[in-house]
Write a sequence for this structure.
């Protein structure tokens, strides 16, 4: 009986020893399993951590659509396109006349006089006020590309045949020189005032006083006669 107990004792000791030796392996295996479940950061250069998701791209602003020309707007609404362009010209002339009226309110009025000094002083004062009121004016504010194209079409029939040749001859003979094609510039003192042939003048929209059309070579110039200020110009309307 005692012999049997003695034989069993080493077996029990051996079993306990084996259990103790197995514990570290089990713990290491569990640690590895937990590590496998944890998220692994993405590494860049030199071990730097990179964000898992890139930031959203910045929003791009949309550019505003260009303004639709007057003729296109008219067609879209069933209005006569040519009439709309001419009405646009009239509206621009009316806007200038309104601005002019307010600008020259304090300037000395032009009165009939034979004294050239007084006339020039009144013109210069008026011109100064008009230029100040439309300091930001630029080429095309009155003669837009659409209006210029319309004027070319209006004048074209009058520039053909014998009448057209005569009109071109008059324009060439009366053409002044050194006229600045610049908005708000002064019409040169002493420069000739070209005659606009009647058949051309009647083809163009009527202007309120004191505005005038002046044809310089192939170009049409809009002038405020009282102030001798060039308001705008349309290039190559005579062909």
């Amino acid at each position: 009986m005692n012999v049997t107990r003695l034989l069993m004792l080493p077996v029990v000791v051996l079993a306990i020893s084996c259990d103790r030796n197995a514990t570290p392996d089990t713990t290491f295996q569990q640690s590895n399993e937990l590590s496998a479940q944890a998220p692994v950061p993405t590494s860049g250069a030199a071990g730097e951590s990179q964000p898992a998701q890139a930031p959203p791209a910045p929003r791009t602003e949309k550019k505003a659509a260009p303004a639709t020309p007057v003729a296109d707007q008219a067609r879209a609404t069933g209005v006569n396109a040519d009439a709309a362009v001419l009405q646009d010209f009239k509206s621009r002339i009316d806007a200038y006349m309104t601005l002019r009226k307010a600008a020259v309110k304090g300037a000395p009025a032009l009165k009939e006089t034979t004294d050239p000094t007084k006339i020039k002083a009144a013109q210069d004062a008026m011109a100064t006020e008009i230029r100040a009121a439309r300091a930001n004016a630029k080429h095309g504010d009155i003669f837009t590309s659409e209006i210029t194209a319309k004027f070319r079409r209006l004048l074209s029939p009058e520039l053909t045949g014998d009448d057209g040749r005569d009109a071109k001859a008059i324009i060439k003979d009366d053409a002044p020189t050194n006229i600045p094609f610049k908005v708000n510039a002064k019409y040169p003192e002493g420069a000739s005032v070209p005659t606009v042939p009647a058949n051309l003048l009647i083809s163009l929209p009527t202007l309120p006083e004191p505005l005038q059309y002046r044809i310089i070579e192939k170009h049409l110039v809009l002038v405020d006669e009282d102030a001798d200020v060039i308001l705008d110009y349309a290039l190559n309307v005579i062909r």
